[in-house]
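Chapter review. Work through the record for Major facilitator superfamily (MFS) profile domain-containing protein before attempting the end-of-chapter questions.
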Amino acid sequence: MAAGFAVSKSGAADRPQFKGRITWYVWICGIIAATSGLMFGYDIGISAKENNYCKFDDQRLQLFTSSLYLAALAASFVASRVCTRFGRKRTMQAASVFFLAGSGLCAGAANLPMLIVGRVCLGVGVGFGNQAAPLFLSEIAPAHIRGALNILFQLNVTIGILVANVVNYFASAVHPLGWRYALGGAAVPAAVLFLGSLAITETPTSLVERGKVDAGRRTLEKIRGTGEVDAEFDEIRSACDLAAELNAEERPYRRLLRRESRPPVVIAVAMQVFQQCTGINALMFYAPVLFQTMGFEADGSLLSAVVTGGVNVVSTVVSIVLVDRVGRRKLLLEACAQMLVAQVAVGGIMVVHVKADDAGSTMNSAWAVAIVVLICVYVSSFAWSWGPLGWLIPSETFPLETRTAGFSLAVSSNMLFTFLIAQAFLSMMCTLRAFIFFFFAVWIVVMGTFVMVLLPETKGVPIDEMVERVWRRHWFWKRCFGDANDARVNNC
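Structure tokens for Major facilitator superfamily (MFS) profile domain-containing protein:
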């Protein structure tokens, strides 16, 4: 691929420009690294009436399903240090090893404790992979395609979920070993990542950060397809020198407590909280039931997995195409409007047509079709916005001195709120019933307001220029920089 690019460092004509080509090697590295998302997605998918709303209100089931996320939460902090000391590539390799071990233990589990240990290993693999892969993708990408390359991670997550749902369906018919085949299937993407990672490079930033300056330059020339990388390499070296100087004075996690770190920290954590509060779980939970009401009966689960999973995958591709053209904010705001309409409409139809205490109740097929369409509308908007951008934005907005530590906060926040939602969701469904859709609709209004007021646009900004070109220029976040005695700074 020979398309050239020249990205201005500040937008001013007198500043040096980044030169190079969008090389096939960058895309190959990106695709291999994004396989970490395939592992994560497969595990998500492999893990989902007395009453139409309370069929699975079992705390033990919820705790087992959610336990992986607690292991991933704890592992993300360890992975932050591993990323800094050993590099993004080695951290992804470690993730694949933990995932291979976990899938083997789960598939061969002779008892519950062995199964739990397997789940913990999978969780550690998720924590390491989700920490390293998005950072790797953001650091190797040219600024103007950083969004598209990074979203390969989320695309693999959606593919993993779809594959796992189909595997679940067919494995359920294989007795008594079907569940072992399904759990053991996680080893396939893990093996692909491990073998593929042997062929990819480390990021130039990580190499320079660890003192391998010459190797960092050679790598940058290789991934840019040109020897004219002085401007970009000088910026990477400057960022690494500043990071080393600042981290010699104060450790990264302590620096995250400083006022100048508040903008990316708040944005990173908020994106993870909001991603889990979109209500995507509520709609995906109902999909099989709705397909069954349309007359598909036993095939309802498979059909819903294929339809909603397919929409999820295709819409993530839409995000890859649009994110670096229209920007992050527009995708998020458009999605909020689309999700709000879908949530309210689905909630209204469910309130009227699904009776909680009548396990055999169904709705008119026309209404069922309407809800299926609304679900697809909702899933598509999530898939091209809050799904992928929840990982992209935190991976690109931290300065190097706090990048791995800051992104570990994002990963751990995602795992924590995934755990909380997974643990509480089914009980909430019992209590709120169809009104749970209105609960999530309120969250969507909050999310949209947050984006309009506090989220800056980061499209096309080189990753090491976020502080100067984004945070210091934002109407609110610029208060976090400058003289500590300035009253505006203290209001940050």
